[in-house]
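pinging the channel bc i need a second pair of eyes. not urgent but kinda urgent?? the chain im working w is below, pasted from the shared doc
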Amino acid sequence: MKDPYEPLRRLPHPRSKRHRPMTLAERAAQFAPFSTLSGMGEMIKEAGQVWEKRPELSEDRQEMLEMALQQLRANPHRGRQVVIEFFQPDKSEDLGRRIICRGHFLALTHRQLILMEGEEIPLVDLVALWVEEEG
């Protein structure tokens, strides 16, 4: 059986001579009025987070953390590579999540560790710190 629409399928897609084609952003903007639940996406994203209580460090872990901080105080070379595990509190301050990041040491104040990448980590939130050897 022959397809009666076959000649139409071979025709090029029609393009307007008056209007330019819409960008993807313009097409998406057409449907923005239908997103009546503003903020819902953020709430769904937040609900998917796994929250935990602030960790309590053992004496050994506190000692290792203090030794790493002393190493930075004694030899504060800027640009030194560090690996940091810290607790990022939620709005409630009781719950949060652990984050591990790598960066380059910039400064150490009595309240926070500052990385060249712009990260400022309060010392009370530090869980672990590893200072990579220079060389």
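so The chain has a mean pLDDT of 84. and The chain has four helices and six strands. — does that match what u expected or am i reading it wrong
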